[in-house]
Write a structure and sequence with these properties.
mainly alpha; three-stranded antiparallel beta sheet; 5 strands; about 65% helix; about 5% strand
Length: about 475
């Protein structure tokens, strides 16, 4: 009996105007925005490849070890076309230097790279909103409209139990909503794969599959919410108004209210305090450096332009060679020491921002739309976790690079740190020649791995809560329907 009712409801919903309009809107939006987002990804990928190639070209021109200061670029996520998350807001490059913390560059239009961590309305959210509204529109009159037409009383006068009616409505509604969801993902993937620079790895396909399942869970939650509203009201018009009101609360009030509360419950340290700590460390560095630096004697030096916009010493007299050996050793040793302290100050601010974001995330979890948005960004690798992984990977790479240069230059005291020649070689250097570059085949390389297992583990809490929302909404709908007056 459940299947018979579900089949009838399914066919009736397929022929409704709201289903046709909702499906067409999903298809049109997908056809319009996926190409735009795919082209944006292509452009970001081209820029990333050009930057990496430029980095490699500069490394081949390095003459001395102190000039190894590459910029580390964050590769764009191909799945950002499905969920941009923080892709356009977080940093995309970091400058590596020995005597300072990695300088995280902001995205275009951002003055502070650590600001705008909270997600904003983007193109991917349009699909979430349309599908969510469609689910409510399919469900809002599932019970109340039957009562108004008198068919609900007639149906229950037979041997059909109320739970069978509700389960049939649920099954029919989900089958209907699977259609636009599947069409949206299929069209999106077809358009995405038609772009020449787009290549989905096996890991990316797993993520797409999980995102599709997450979408089904989301529309199921929204449909169950609409079913609950329909069971709580006696007229379909009231069901529609109440359903849309709850939807607006979930879409607008909950996310913005969560951010507002998080900023007040978990305030960040004042910028003046952070700036004061940084200034104090900088002054301490200058004081210790000036106290320990050697006295400069009669030095003679001729510099040449080197890699990454730096200079290296080409011709130095004997006194200058000894002076620069000591000054560079002191400068790098103290610079690294104080850079680590500055990192702790900056990282504490970033941790505070992450805690604030986490609190806002936890508060917003009462909204299934927020749960879905967070779940999609986690699976796409465009959430806050991806940003934190990038920051820590840059810090780890900087430490590896420092250890490499320290080993190669005997604790920053070898002349190869700042000049490619010995005193004897300098005496016979021609005025114009191509100076030898360093052999950097064993130089550590930066890698940023996107682990689908790690991302899935981070997505599990939102996934569990989305499943719980489904169970809760349906259970409440069942309780309300059991007590529903069909007269």
């Amino acid at each position: 009996m459940i299947w018979k009712i579900a089949k009838k409801e399914f066919l009736l919903n397929l022929m409704t105007f709201k289903f046709a309009v909702g499906t067409i809107v999903c298809m049109v939006l997908t056809a319009v925005f996926i190409p735009i987002l795919a082209k944006d990804y292509q452009q970001k990928l081209r820029t990333y490849n050009d930057n990496v190639a430029r980095n490699e070209a500069e490394l081949r021109k390095v003459k001395v070890y102190k000039n190894i200061t590459p910029t580390i670029y964050r590769p764009p996520s191909v799945l950002s076309v499905f969920s941009e998350g923080l892709e356009k807001q977080i940093a995309n490059s970091a400058k590596i230097e020995y005597d300072r913390i990695p300088e995280i560059s902001a995205a275009a239009g951002q003055e502070n790279p650590y600001q705008a961590i909270f997600p904003v309305f983007d193109a991917s959210l349009i699909f979430k909103i349309v599908i969510g509204v469609l689910a409510l529109l399919v469900a809002y009159d599932a019970i109340s409209a039957e009562r108004e037409r008198g068919t609900l009383k007639l149906m229950l006068s037979d041997t059909i139990a109320r739970h069978e009616v509700l389960l049939a409505k649920l099954l029919a509604g989900l089958l209907v909503l699977v259609v636009p969801t599947t069409i949206t993902f299929t069209i999106g993937l077809i358009i995405l794969l038609s772009f020449p620079m787009v290549d989905l790895t096996p890991s990316a396909w797993v993520r797409v599959g999980l995102m599709y399942l997450a979408s089904l869970l989301f529309i199921s939650a929204m449909y169950n919410l609409g079913l609950l509203v329909s069971c709580l009201t006696r007229r379909s018009a009231i069901s529609l108004v109440l359903g849309l009101f709850i939807w607006i609360v979930f879409v607008v009030v909950v996310p913005n209210g969560s951010i507002y509360l998080a900023e007040r419950v978990q305030p960040l340290e004042p910028e003046d305090k952070i700036d004061g700590q940084i200034k104090s460390l900088q002054q301490a560095y200058k004081s210790e450096f000036n106290k320990s630096k050697p006295r400069r004697t009669n030095t003679s030096v001729s510099d040449s332009s080197g890699a990454f916009g730096h200079f290296y010493s080409r011709k130095i007299n004997k006194e200058g060679l000894e002076y620069f050996k000591e000054i560079y050793r002191l400068e790098h040793t103290l610079g690294i020491k104080y850079a680590d302290k500055l990192w702790e100050v900056e990282h504490s601010y970033l941790n505070g921002l992450s805690k604030q974001k986490k609190l806002a995330h936890n508060l917003s979890r009462i909204s299934p739309i927020s749960l879905y948005e967070n779940l999609m960004s986690s699976l796409a690798g465009t959430g806050i976790a991806g940003f934190q992984s990038y920051i820590m990977s840059v810090k780890t790479y900087r430490d590896r690079l420092i250890d490499y240069v320290r080993f190669r230059t005997d604790g920053f005291s070898a002349t190869s740190l700042f000049t490619p020649f010995t005193i004897e070689q300098m005496e016979h250097l021609p005025n114009k020649s191509e100076d030898p570059s360093l052999d950097l085949r064993d130089l550590p390389r930066f890698t940023l791995k996107a682990d689908v297992v790690v991302d899935l583990r981070k997505a599990i809490p939102d996934l569990v809560l989305l499943i719980f929302a489904n169970v809760l909404f349906f259970a409440l709908a069942f309780v309300a329907f059991v007590r529903y007056d069909v007269r």
